[in-house]
Structures are given as C-alpha cells and as structure tokens.
Amino acid sequence: MSSTPVPLSVDQLRQLASLGERRAHSPLGEPLLLLALGAGDRADRALNDWLRALPAPVVGIGAGDAPFAVACDAVVDDIDAAASLIANVRRHPLAAMVFVQLLRLIEKLPITEALSAESLAYAALQNGPEFHGWRNAHPGDRAAPDEDGPAVVITREEDRLQLALNRPGNRNAMTVEMRDALCEALQLAVSDASIATIEIRARGKCFSTGGDLREFGTAPDPATAHLVRSLALPGRLLAQLASRSTAFVHGACIGSGIEFPAFAGRIVARDDAWFQLPELKYGLIPGAGGCISITRRIGRQRVAWLGLSGLRIDAARALDWGLVDAIAP
C-alpha cells in the first residue's frame, strides 16, 4: 500500500464503477478513495449513487462546489490536507467505514430513528477487532478521583432551570454517574412545562472531555449497551428541550462533551473552547448522539472530517461552521 493514495479522476472512477469493483476501496484493500474534484466534471447521478454505496470513506480533493463533491464524505483543499484522514482511516478502517456509512444513512432520518441507527452501529464496533485491540492495550486500571457533591448541580429560579456538571477533578467526563444525573434533571424539565429556560454549564477548567475511558466497554455485552443507550441518553432528552435550552461551553469539549450540548437550541462558547471527535482512534464512532446533533449543525461532510481526522477546531472555526451560535468572554 503506497504512502499516499493517488486521487482518481472522474473518468477513472467511472471505469471502476462500470466494473462493479468495490472491494479495492474497502477495509479489505485501500480503505478510502480519494477523488480529484474538477469544476468541469459532468454530473452523473448513477456515479454519485455508486460512491455513496462504497464501503469506505470518499474524500474529495478540490473545490467543494464541484459536481461530485456532494457524493463525497469529506472534502479538503489539497492532498496535504487529507494526510490526517488518510493516516487515521488506514489505522482504523472498519470504524471509518461504519462512521461514513452511518452518516450517509441518517442524513435525512428523524432524530429518534437516527439515534437508534447510531447506537446499533456503535454496538457493532464495540464487538469489533479495532476496539478490542484498543481495550487490550489500555486496561484502565486508574480509579476516578473522589469528588464531593452531586455529579450535576441543579438550581431552579422561578421558571429557569440551571444545570452544572460538577466533576471538575475528572474533567466532567461523561461517566455513568454523570449520564444518569443528566437524564434525571432533563426528565424533570421535559415533564414540567412551567420551566421556560434550561441553562447547562460546567464547573472547572473545561466543559467535558467526553466519555470516561475507564468505563469504555464495561457493559456486559454490546446488545445490553445498546439497550442502555436506548433508555438513558441525555442527548435524546435535550433534543426535546431544544427550544428552551442553552449550553454554555468552555475549554475542552471532546466527544460527548460536544455531542451532548449540540442538541441544545443554542450554544454559547467561551473563546478558549475547543472541539474534537477522537473516537476513531478507539475503533469506535461518536456514540452519544453526535452523529445526529453535530450533523444537524454543521453538515455530514464536516462531521466526517472531524471524526476521520481527529483534529481539533477552535471556537472561531466552530462559530464559522455553525457548531456554536455565539462566542462570549
């Protein structure tokens, strides 16, 4: 396998599609396809459909308004900008495949069905070799720090409900304790129409670094884990409260630390906030609803870029993309 795959032209792609060849660009071959995008390419619905069915990420190189850009999973300016995507996809081809297939599938699905699809895809990867390889290399024997008080501090002032993530010593990681506390608080808001506004903040240096790695894979089995996500997912409840909710984020917002607040109707970021979806390096995909919540804010291709590259974006880019709605000191 060459160090850098050569982008295919549309004519080369058309020849490949005419042969019905899909194995060459899959986890069994080169696990992604690079496509050279040109403004002069002739649009082809059948070729677009073939690309969307490919069991591998399709990364367009060139202009985002080229005819075939819409069929790509991510679009970058040049081959150098694709380097992090190429490296990550080659290290985790199965997770990358499932990730883009899921994003294609749920693009137009209602939230409830899309969340079910995400959870099932996540469950499949939990039983896959890439996640098991990561787990075996990271047994997670360190205990979380002991911290006083509830995981989520709940304050009500008349018709305003304020929630504060309260595990700063653990960087407000989305542990089982945090998940259950958020579900309890948000269920209260769902059940009480007299609550006009919900504000979500976090104490400490950051909003949340996402799922606690010590708890990854600790469910009895992937099917049971899917059941738990189907019953207790904070984002599902926050989505019901979107018109009443604002999330205020700062510092690191990693994985579920942005997947969850992205369901709020409004996100206000401090200027030190930064955002990242690192799940691919664990052999997984975003599993706290982020394939839905973030996609509905910034679109499928930008979510794919975040997940496949694993790179961070700062508050300014997040605002430009629409991931956050405002930046405040």
Task: Walk me through this protein's architecture.
It holds the Pfam family ECH_1. GO terms for molecular function: isomerase activity. This protein has 329 residues and is α/β, with parallel strands linked by helices. Helix content is 39%, strand content 15%. The protein contains 14 helices and 12 strands. The chain has helices at residues 10-18, 45-52, 83-91, 93-106, 111-126, 129-137, 176-191, 222-231, 234-240, 256-259, 290-293, 295-298, 300-309, 315-321; strands at residues 33-36, 58-61, 74-76, 152-157, 160-165, 197-202, 245-249, 252-254, 266-270, 274-276, 313-314, 326-328. A 6-stranded mixed sheet has the order 4-5-6-7-9-12, covered by helices on one side. It has a 3-stranded parallel sheet with strand order 1-2-3. It is globular. The N and C termini lie far apart (48 Å). The model has no long low-confidence stretch (mean pLDDT 94).
Give the key terms.
single chain; 329 residues; alpha/beta; 2-enoyl-CoA Hydratase, Chain A, domain 1; 2 domains; six-stranded mixed beta sheet; three-stranded parallel beta sheet; 12 strands; 39% helix; 15% strand; globular
